[in-house]
Write a structure and sequence with these properties.
single chain; TIM Barrel; Enolase-like, domain 1; about 40% helix; 8-stranded parallel barrel
Amino acid sequence: MKITAIETLQWEHLPRIIVVRVHTDAGIIGLGESVDKVHGTKGAIHGTLAPLLLGQDPLDIEGVWRFAMDNIMYHGYAGAETRALSAIEIALWDIMGKFYQAPLYHLLGGKTRDRVPTYNTCIGTPTVPDYLQWQTDAGGLAKSLLSDGIRALKIWPFDKFSESSFGQYISLQSVQEGLRPIQQIREAVGNDVEIGIECHFRWNRASMERIVEALEPYNILFIEDAIAAVHPKEIKALSQKTRIPFVGSELLMTRWQLRDWIQEGVTQIVMTDPVWNGGIAETRKIANLAEAYGIPLVLHNVASPICHAVCMHLGAHIPNLFFAESVRAFYQGYFSEMCGWQPAVNDGNMSIPEGVGLGVELTAHMLSHPKLTRLVSDGEGLAKGRRAMGDHWAVEEIR
């Protein structure tokens, strides 16, 4: 079996998402995706990776991945190229599942759990206004989440105060204002809902120390990306001054960027995103590395049903899973339009998709959508079978 075409799909009303379809000469099509900064990802898919991967065997996932990484690492890999490789690698696993008629979690070695614990990241849409509600009535939001079976949430109440000082200073008054939704949640539902605090690496350590001290009485589940991941020593020093666990960081791509982070114990919990970090196999390798150090893992998941399905399969398989992120506003919204599937939460857990491969297929509506932009790379490709980079100057003509 060979890869015959690599196709990208983008929809005007879903600008954060790029979906990949990898076609084969056996007629099997695999789905993958990446999210955010999609123009760079699209360029890397068609301009860099497709010429290398066309003609390759899609079942040789490890070999194909290493061949691609060997090429993209040459000029620095941890950006659009790795997001592009992640999307394609996910599609290759989907192809393998369809070829062997097996769900992804079986291909990975089976399940360690039947249900995947999740927290709701409170992004909002017009139909599910979770973002607006946590800023105006967080207690009401907590009750709404509980009624949907969701027992943990994540909000970012301090971010807006970072803008005026570039994250260099936060006043006591701003800290108290940032605490308001947390207080509302505790007053409305007590400790029945876990609270995670996202900081989007907006602050320096001095400011975060003030925030963390104020958060300590509220039984916070975790603090995520308190400081930019380029400052691991500052993050570790901060995390050791509080009983609240720290999470980091989806900004680190591949096992190589996370290796020292895990070994040095920068955070008590590791987070990674399979549509950014290199893909499904890379996520499992990162999880294995973290497990060797006794560190749990969060799966970052703020994309389409393709990424969600990947995280559910990985969450079922990975033994040291802490939580898999999910977004109610997304899965109660456009998920059903994309694939006819709306995941449900029961007692804080999500089920694993049924079916072979990822268990997700795009609807005919999305494949024929009038606002769909489709780009296809096909042909024989430049690489005649997998090979290492070697002496890439040893060609008659440099193009």
